Amino acid sequence: MAEIGSGLKYYRSSVARQRGAGLGAIFGAVARHLIPFAKDFILPITKKYVAPRALEAIKHVGDDYMNTDVPFRQSLKDNSIKALKNMGKDIWFGQSGSGRGRKRKASTKPKSNKKSKVEKVKLDLYS
To answer: 76-114: buried (b, 16+ CB within 10 Å) or exposed (e) per residue?
Structure first.
């Protein structure tokens, strides 16, 4: 009669432990959809617009630090703002193309199923 009360000795259920839900599951579900979106849309834009402007800003910060008496923080702030403005101009004015073409809807007029009218010729034997 060792099984009475608490169940089998070699088996314990884990009632106190939560599985499969909670904050981690929510973040996992969001990440499952966000990562492919980022790969398809955000990464190409970053490569095209952000990376070149960031490298340009870093180069200008280095030049300012080595060649002028401008403090590092001030140079970093000024060149970062310039890079963001140039990036915005590239994105806004650098777009080209005519956009996505739209298919024209077929006319909604009903098709006529009229058969061509054939005149019936009356055959009159007595005329």
So the answer is: beebbeebeeebeeeeeeeeeeeeeeeeeeeeeeeeeee
DSSP state, 103? Answer: P
Integer distance in angstroms from the first to the last C-alpha of the chain? 119
Q: What confidence tens digit (pLDDT) does each residue in 91-124 have?
A: 788 767 777 777 777 777 666 666 666 666 677 7
H or E segment to which residue 31 belongs: helix 23-37
Contact 53, 90 (CB under 8 A): yes
Task: List, for residues 4-23, the tens digit of each pLDDT value.
Answer: 555 556 656 555 555 667 78
C-alpha count within 13 angstroms, C-beta hemisphere, residue 2 = 4
Distance of CA 119 to the CA centre of its chain: 65
Give me the residue label for tokens 């009632």: 15
pTM: 0.47
